[in-house]
Amino acid sequence: MVKKYSMILGLILLLAVATPASAYNYNYDYVYGDGGYTSPYAGAIVETFDPSGALTQGWALTGNYAIRKGSITEAASPWYDDGSGGTRDETYYLTVPETLTGSLSATIDFQGASYNYFGIWWGSMDTYNTLEFLASDLSTVVDTVYGTTFSSGSGAQDDAETNRYVNFYGMDDFYGVRLTSTQFAFEVDNIAVGKNVTPEPTTMLLLGFGLIGLAGLRRKA
Question: What is the reported pTM?
Protein backbone atom coordinates (compact mmCIF):
# COMPACT_ATOMS: atom_id res chain seq x y z
CA MET A 1 0.00 0.00 0.00
CA VAL A 2 2.92 2.34 0.76
CA LYS A 3 4.25 1.66 -2.72
CA LYS A 4 0.84 2.60 -4.15
CA TYR A 5 0.87 5.91 -2.25
CA SER A 6 4.41 6.62 -3.46
CA MET A 7 3.44 6.02 -7.08
CA ILE A 8 0.46 8.37 -6.84
CA LEU A 9 2.47 11.07 -5.09
CA GLY A 10 5.24 10.68 -7.67
CA LEU A 11 2.73 11.18 -10.49
CA ILE A 12 1.38 14.33 -8.84
CA LEU A 13 4.87 15.77 -8.44
CA LEU A 14 5.69 14.88 -12.04
CA LEU A 15 2.65 16.74 -13.26
CA ALA A 16 3.60 19.74 -11.13
CA VAL A 17 7.14 19.84 -12.51
CA ALA A 18 5.98 19.23 -16.11
CA THR A 19 3.54 22.13 -16.07
CA PRO A 20 5.14 24.85 -18.24
CA ALA A 21 5.76 28.08 -16.36
CA SER A 22 4.66 30.13 -19.35
CA ALA A 23 1.39 28.30 -20.06
CA TYR A 24 -1.56 30.65 -19.89
CA ASN A 25 -5.04 30.19 -18.50
CA TYR A 26 -8.11 31.97 -19.82
CA ASN A 27 -11.77 32.65 -19.14
CA TYR A 28 -14.60 34.55 -20.79
CA ASP A 29 -15.63 36.78 -17.87
CA TYR A 30 -16.67 40.34 -18.67
CA VAL A 31 -18.78 43.30 -17.67
CA TYR A 32 -20.58 45.77 -19.92
CA GLY A 33 -18.86 49.09 -20.49
CA ASP A 34 -16.85 51.18 -22.93
CA GLY A 35 -19.05 50.29 -25.88
CA GLY A 36 -19.63 46.61 -25.13
CA TYR A 37 -17.63 43.93 -23.32
CA THR A 38 -14.76 45.02 -21.08
CA SER A 39 -12.54 43.65 -18.33
CA PRO A 40 -14.34 42.57 -15.15
CA TYR A 41 -11.31 43.04 -12.94
CA ALA A 42 -10.90 46.03 -10.67
CA GLY A 43 -7.49 47.61 -11.04
CA ALA A 44 -7.02 46.57 -14.66
CA ILE A 45 -5.76 49.28 -17.04
CA VAL A 46 -8.08 49.45 -20.06
CA GLU A 47 -7.26 50.94 -23.46
CA THR A 48 -10.52 51.95 -25.18
CA PHE A 49 -9.09 54.03 -28.08
CA ASP A 50 -11.69 56.65 -27.19
CA PRO A 51 -12.72 59.39 -27.47
CA SER A 52 -10.47 60.37 -30.38
CA GLY A 53 -9.39 57.07 -31.96
CA ALA A 54 -5.93 57.12 -30.40
CA LEU A 55 -4.06 55.46 -27.54
CA THR A 56 -4.98 56.87 -24.15
CA GLN A 57 -2.60 54.97 -21.82
CA GLY A 58 0.77 56.26 -23.03
CA TRP A 59 1.63 53.02 -24.82
CA ALA A 60 3.24 52.85 -28.28
CA LEU A 61 1.50 51.15 -31.21
CA THR A 62 3.42 50.29 -34.37
CA GLY A 63 2.94 48.17 -37.47
CA ASN A 64 0.17 47.47 -39.96
CA TYR A 65 -3.05 48.52 -38.24
CA ALA A 66 -5.93 50.97 -38.22
CA ILE A 67 -8.11 52.39 -35.46
CA ARG A 68 -11.64 52.60 -36.80
CA LYS A 69 -15.21 53.34 -35.86
CA GLY A 70 -17.88 51.37 -37.69
CA SER A 71 -17.61 48.41 -40.05
CA ILE A 72 -16.06 48.37 -43.52
CA THR A 73 -15.39 45.57 -46.00
CA GLU A 74 -12.03 44.80 -44.39
CA ALA A 75 -13.12 44.96 -40.76
CA ALA A 76 -16.25 44.51 -38.66
CA SER A 77 -16.89 46.27 -35.37
CA PRO A 78 -16.86 43.73 -32.53
CA TRP A 79 -20.34 42.41 -31.74
CA TYR A 80 -21.81 41.82 -28.30
CA ASP A 81 -24.99 40.44 -26.78
CA ASP A 82 -26.82 43.41 -25.32
CA GLY A 83 -29.79 41.29 -24.24
CA SER A 84 -31.97 42.33 -27.16
CA GLY A 85 -30.57 40.40 -30.08
CA GLY A 86 -27.05 41.77 -30.10
CA THR A 87 -25.45 44.91 -31.44
CA ARG A 88 -22.08 46.24 -32.60
CA ASP A 89 -19.40 48.31 -30.94
CA GLU A 90 -20.09 51.95 -31.77
CA THR A 91 -16.79 53.17 -30.31
CA TYR A 92 -13.28 53.11 -31.79
CA TYR A 93 -11.58 49.73 -32.10
CA LEU A 94 -8.26 48.36 -33.36
CA THR A 95 -8.02 46.26 -36.51
CA VAL A 96 -4.97 44.38 -37.88
CA PRO A 97 -3.86 44.51 -40.65
CA GLU A 98 -4.88 47.69 -42.42
CA THR A 99 -3.59 46.35 -45.77
CA LEU A 100 -2.54 42.88 -46.91
CA THR A 101 0.94 44.04 -47.87
CA GLY A 102 4.20 43.93 -45.95
CA SER A 103 4.10 42.91 -42.32
CA LEU A 104 0.67 41.74 -41.19
CA SER A 105 1.30 42.53 -37.53
CA ALA A 106 0.94 45.38 -35.05
CA THR A 107 2.81 45.64 -31.75
CA ILE A 108 1.67 47.35 -28.56
CA ASP A 109 4.61 48.39 -26.40
CA PHE A 110 3.76 49.01 -22.73
CA GLN A 111 6.76 51.33 -22.46
CA GLY A 112 8.75 49.34 -19.91
CA ALA A 113 5.84 48.22 -17.73
CA SER A 114 5.31 44.49 -17.22
CA TYR A 115 2.05 42.62 -16.70
CA ASN A 116 0.82 39.06 -16.31
CA TYR A 117 -2.86 39.60 -17.11
CA PHE A 118 -4.30 40.53 -20.50
CA GLY A 119 -7.94 41.06 -21.43
CA ILE A 120 -9.29 41.60 -24.94
CA TRP A 121 -12.68 42.06 -26.58
CA TRP A 122 -12.02 39.85 -29.60
CA GLY A 123 -14.39 40.42 -32.50
CA SER A 124 -15.27 37.83 -35.17
CA MET A 125 -12.57 35.42 -33.98
CA ASP A 126 -10.70 33.85 -36.88
CA THR A 127 -8.34 30.89 -37.08
CA TYR A 128 -5.77 33.12 -38.82
CA ASN A 129 -5.53 35.53 -35.87
CA THR A 130 -2.46 35.17 -33.61
CA LEU A 131 -1.64 36.96 -30.37
CA GLU A 132 1.90 36.90 -28.98
CA PHE A 133 3.06 38.10 -25.56
CA LEU A 134 6.51 39.65 -25.71
CA ALA A 135 9.48 39.94 -23.35
CA SER A 136 11.21 43.22 -22.54
CA ASP A 137 13.13 43.22 -25.84
CA LEU A 138 9.76 43.15 -27.68
CA SER A 139 11.15 40.33 -29.81
CA THR A 140 11.32 37.25 -27.60
CA VAL A 141 7.93 35.55 -27.39
CA VAL A 142 6.76 34.66 -23.87
CA ASP A 143 3.56 32.94 -24.96
CA THR A 144 1.43 32.55 -28.08
CA VAL A 145 -2.34 32.41 -28.50
CA TYR A 146 -3.66 30.92 -31.73
CA GLY A 147 -7.03 31.77 -33.21
CA THR A 148 -7.64 28.07 -33.79
CA THR A 149 -8.05 27.69 -30.01
CA PHE A 150 -11.07 30.01 -30.03
CA SER A 151 -12.56 29.86 -33.52
CA SER A 152 -13.87 26.98 -35.60
CA GLY A 153 -13.03 28.97 -38.70
CA SER A 154 -16.35 30.70 -39.33
CA GLY A 155 -15.23 34.07 -37.95
CA ALA A 156 -18.90 35.01 -37.72
CA GLN A 157 -19.37 38.74 -37.25
CA ASP A 158 -22.59 38.51 -35.23
CA ASP A 159 -22.27 35.37 -33.14
CA ALA A 160 -21.77 35.03 -29.39
CA GLU A 161 -19.36 32.13 -29.98
CA THR A 162 -16.97 34.22 -32.08
CA ASN A 163 -17.24 37.59 -30.33
CA ARG A 164 -16.01 37.28 -26.76
CA TYR A 165 -14.08 38.99 -24.03
CA VAL A 166 -11.11 36.78 -23.24
CA ASN A 167 -8.98 37.11 -20.11
CA PHE A 168 -5.50 35.55 -20.21
CA TYR A 169 -3.59 35.00 -16.98
CA GLY A 170 -1.09 32.73 -15.32
CA MET A 171 1.78 33.49 -17.74
CA ASP A 172 5.23 34.96 -17.28
CA ASP A 173 5.48 38.76 -17.22
CA PHE A 174 5.22 40.40 -20.63
CA TYR A 175 6.09 43.92 -21.80
CA GLY A 176 4.17 44.08 -25.06
CA VAL A 177 1.82 42.16 -27.33
CA ARG A 178 1.88 41.50 -31.05
CA LEU A 179 -1.32 40.95 -33.03
CA THR A 180 -1.02 39.21 -36.39
CA SER A 181 -3.64 38.32 -38.97
CA THR A 182 -2.86 36.83 -42.36
CA GLN A 183 -6.26 37.89 -43.70
CA PHE A 184 -8.83 40.59 -42.85
CA ALA A 185 -8.94 40.94 -39.92
CA PHE A 186 -8.08 40.84 -36.22
CA GLU A 187 -10.55 43.25 -34.57
CA VAL A 188 -10.23 44.10 -30.88
CA ASP A 189 -11.32 46.67 -28.34
CA ASN A 190 -11.07 47.41 -24.62
CA ILE A 191 -7.62 45.88 -24.24
CA ALA A 192 -6.80 45.44 -20.55
CA VAL A 193 -3.61 44.68 -18.64
CA GLY A 194 -2.82 44.20 -14.99
CA LYS A 195 -0.65 42.48 -12.43
CA ASN A 196 -2.08 39.57 -10.46
CA VAL A 197 -5.67 40.68 -11.01
CA THR A 198 -6.85 37.06 -11.19
CA PRO A 199 -5.81 34.15 -9.00
CA GLU A 200 -3.07 32.12 -10.65
CA PRO A 201 -3.48 28.35 -10.27
CA THR A 202 -0.44 26.85 -8.57
CA THR A 203 1.08 23.43 -8.52
CA MET A 204 0.75 23.52 -4.73
CA LEU A 205 -3.02 23.45 -5.12
CA LEU A 206 -2.70 20.37 -7.32
CA LEU A 207 -0.42 18.78 -4.77
CA GLY A 208 -2.89 19.60 -2.01
CA PHE A 209 -5.73 17.84 -3.82
CA GLY A 210 -3.45 14.85 -4.34
CA LEU A 211 -2.61 14.61 -0.67
CA ILE A 212 -6.30 14.80 0.23
CA GLY A 213 -6.87 11.91 -2.15
CA LEU A 214 -4.10 9.93 -0.51
CA ALA A 215 -5.67 10.51 2.90
CA GLY A 216 -8.92 9.16 1.57
CA LEU A 217 -7.25 6.03 0.25
CA ARG A 218 -5.52 5.51 3.63
CA ARG A 219 -8.88 5.69 5.43
CA LYS A 220 -10.40 3.13 3.05
CA ALA A 221 -7.43 0.84 3.58
Answer: 0.80
